[in-house]
Fold this protein.
Amino acid sequence: MNIITNEDNIVKIAKALSDKSRLKILGEIAKRESITCSEAEKIAELSQPTVSHHLKILTDAGLLDVVKNGRYSIISINKKTLKEFGDLISKAILI
């Protein structure tokens, strides 16, 4: 059985946020509320495989929600995860 601790969550999210391209994508999603994968490619100015890799890391960390809409995937920020991350960081620093 794999038990995930708060520290594990902090590290996973922090690693996902440690890349400039991923931060750029997240910032743009925050401005627009949601984007498609092709819009993410334009924002990041990277190839489709590279953008898909970045989106997967952000999604695996729980930072993005992805909803299929026909041929498209609509990507939005998981605000609950971001809030929880902020709370975990605050608690970890104040300990």
Notes: The mean pLDDT is 89. The CA atoms of residues 10 and 85 lie 7 Å apart.
